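Reproducibility note. Readers wishing to regenerate the assembly model reported in the main text can use the exact inputs given here. Chain order matters: entities are listed in the order in which they were concatenated for prediction.
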Amino acid sequence: MTNINGKAYAMNAVTPMKTWKTPILLAVFFLIGVFKSAQKGLVDLSFIHFARWVVVQNNQFPRLAPEQPEEQLKYDYLLFFSNFNGTWNEYIDAFSAVLSSGLNLIWRWSEKFPGSVPVTAFKRYISLVQFDTDYYYTAYPYATTSDVKAAIRVDDALQEFANRAAGLTPEEFQQSYLQLLVKVQADIGALGPAPMGT
Amino acid sequence: MANQNGNMYGLTILSPIIDDPKSKVSHDSALRLYLQNMPRHAYSPFTKVSGTHFCRLVVMDDVVFVGSPAAEEHLKSKYLVFNSNLYGGLDAYLAEMARKIPDVVDDIWSHCVGYPGVADPSAFAAYMKKCQIETTFFFADVNDKTVEQTLRALQMKVEFTAFIERNQGASPAGLLREFAAFWERVRELPLPPAGVKDLAKSHAAIA
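Running the prediction on these inputs yields the following structure tokens for the assembly.
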């Protein structure tokens, strides 16, 4: 399935919005951008590499030639693209359980959004508005975003340790090495297989 | 600017697909078939565009009708969505696409309205920017590492985990000697290739 590449899942969704609601949503995103604490939930979930929301106003669909028919849309559209780890069901369940108020704040302006709780209605809505990916590339399919963050911490710690270790006696080296292991113990380990299922 | 998060750039392109009733195979079908058969993983053309962390290509057939009382409406064109999460700036990225994978770019975007080709990189960049939609909100969990730095860090994590396992219970002198050899070796290791599905297999090949 092209939505999946190794441990990453590419989600695309499009939802219609009445045009008068668009400025409200833009203000919401502006505030989320300014107040970084509002992004804490996304960071804490730690299974999203990258995600984006794109508001396409009804007159913004690119028209590049006179022979291309002009779009005549009543609604503006909210596009959502995510690169997450795990299965679709796990993702939607976690979103609904952990970020329900944040999601509601973003999607409540879309037509017929049922709310992110209860999760069954939310899943039905996402299934309806999702469209599939034709080609999906990632430079590191075998790594989750937690793997990437752990690897960066290990790499940084190791570089720092190697610089510090030069010139130590064997006993001092061992002591310092054990301190390094304590520091990175939560970040080492195998990368593990990709999840099975949907 | 919402396209940017740290050093990451969230590129969103919507290119209208040519609608030619006279073609034997519609452009959107031909494009889908091309994308279906485009090489993947370590053989993906996007491995050559060095800033690409993640990207996707999607044929968007239409907008969605979510049910009454919402109004039902339809797009008059289909659009190719190109969505890339890249390190660095847009101009350099588009220039690299034109330089490193010109045939692939031509094969894909020649199905789109007004595409000028990559022979003139500035015309190509201008075309892509005409198709660009500003990202409203862009989230990047890690926003300050190049692809190369990320691959190197993942390689280091795997190598160091194996080192720890091999050297449990080593004497202080043995540990010092083994670490010196390990450090010298890992610094010389070639970078794991981008796009490979399994790092362990690429590692075995490198070793």
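We highlight two features of this model. Chain A has a mean pLDDT of 92. Residues 4-131 of chain A form a domain with the Alpha-Beta Plaits fold (CATH 3.30.70).
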